[in-house]
């Protein structure tokens, strides 16, 4: 796995500071992002922004789609804009070789076979409690990329355990729910976590507690 | 249009009879989840008893239940099972089901579009998966095999 030079190449393309910031702008976007938005966010020219974005595409870190942004269709709507979003592939390089995902898969399978999901949920909730602080800050630190979806709802745009969650959805999504519930605090908190799955984001969403 | 559909069979052993108070939420959820499956994209068919209930108990062991269904593609089944309200029921399955241990609880296989699987067929596929591990005629989501047609074309 340390021999996987494609992963190393992909990550090495982020050593350029401007390019790394361009990646962050795309990763933080709520949807596909155009070069103009990246240029504006970084205070650089559109051509330079496009250069870095296309390098990130070539490295496999970003993916391209095309869409008309004005909402117009048909003749006169103009050319579709080239848009960028984070690629589905994951890249990791470990020196010396480590394979924690492989260990996690074995542990997850053992938990399912033994039927001790509840033990994992308890551990996860306790772990979440230890991380407790401002919800958005804590969730950001844990890699969930929280984003407001209206005044009363927070969606988590990244699942830190994505590949494991794909293989063991009930177990790992349940672990996420327990950890986030612990992190948010008890009934006096502002937010409640619940299972609310959808493709492309964490299966847990937060809804604001009614204060009356 | 694919000429093969995906068949699915699940089995579980209930912790208590469906009438038991501890099973109320599961028993109520069955109808909700069946209705959700019926209107989910890519849903083709499911085994149902005369009341429309898709959770079929084995005659010899009433605590042993089965679900059997057919979907256009694995993605459709995945979306229903793991990206809908159904996931919350799966998360809570230990409240209602005994652990499976080493026994396989889910089996998938391909069947020609238009054909319907039988419970007997599903139990036999589950046995094959259990005995020999995932193979083209009995597999799992974690170890998928392509539909026969696709395998020939490649």
TrEMBL record, chain A:
Organism, scientific name: Paractinoplanes tereljensis
Protein name: ArsR family transcriptional regulator
Lineage: Bacteria, Bacillati, Actinomycetota, Actinomycetes, Micromonosporales
Database matches in InterPro entries: ArsR-like_HTH, WH-like_DNA-bd_sf, WH_DNA-bd_sf
Domain of life: Bacteria
Chain coiled-coil ranges: none
Stored Gene3D superfamilies: Winged helix-like DNA-binding domain superfamily/Winged helix DNA-binding domain
From TrEMBL, chain B:
Pfam families linked: DUF3291 (PF11695)
The organism's place on the tree of life at top rank: Bacteria
InterPro entries cross-referenced by the UniProt entry: Dimeric_a/b-barrel, DUF3291
Domain DUF3291: 6-143
Protein name, per record: DUF3291 domain-containing protein
């Amino acid at each position: 796995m340390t021999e996987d030079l494609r992963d190393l190449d992909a990550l090495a393309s982020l050593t350029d500071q401007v390019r790394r910031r361009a990646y962050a702008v795309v990763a933080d976007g709520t949807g596909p992002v155009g070069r103009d938005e990246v240029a504006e966010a970084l205070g650089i020219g559109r051509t330079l922004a496009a250069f870095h974005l296309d390098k990130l595409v070539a490295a496999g870190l970003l993916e391209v789609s095309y869409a008309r942004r004005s909402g117009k269709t048909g003749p006169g709507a103009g050319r579709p804009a080239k848009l960028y979003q984070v690629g589905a592939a994951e890249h990791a390089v470990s020196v010396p070789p480590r394979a924690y995902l492989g260990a996690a898969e074995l542990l997850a399978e053992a938990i399912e076979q033994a039927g001790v999901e509840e033990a994992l949920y308890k551990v996860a909730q306790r772990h979440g409690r230890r991380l407790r602080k401002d919800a958005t800050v804590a969730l950001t630190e844990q890699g969930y990329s929280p984003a407001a979806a209206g005044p009363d709802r927070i969606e988590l745009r990244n699942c830190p355990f994505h590949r494991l969650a794909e293989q063991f959805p009930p177990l790992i999504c349940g672990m996420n729910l327990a950890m986030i519930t612990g992190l948010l605090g008890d009934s006096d908190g502002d937010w409640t976590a619940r299972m609310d799955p959808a493709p492309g984001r964490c299966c847990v969403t937060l809804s604001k507690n009614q204060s009356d | 249009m694919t000429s093969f559909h995906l068949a699915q069979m699940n089995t579980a052993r209930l912790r208590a009879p469906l009438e038991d108070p501890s099973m109320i939420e599961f028993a109520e959820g069955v109808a909700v989840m069946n209705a959700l499956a019926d209107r989910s994209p890519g849903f083709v068919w499911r085994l149902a008893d005369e009341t429309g209930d898709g959770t079929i108990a084995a005659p010899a062991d009433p605590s042993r239940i089965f679900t059997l269904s057919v979907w256009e593609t694995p993605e459709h089944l995945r979306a229903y099972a793991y990206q809908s309200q159904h996931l919350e029921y799966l998360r809570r399955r230990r409240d209602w089901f005994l652990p499976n241990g080493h026994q396989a609880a889910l089996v998938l296989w391909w069947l020609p579009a238009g054909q319907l699987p039988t419970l007997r067929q599903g139990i036999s596929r589950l046995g094959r998966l259990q005995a020999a591990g995932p193979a083209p005629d009995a597999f799992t989501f974690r170890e998928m095999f392509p539909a026969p047609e696709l395998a020939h074309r490649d």
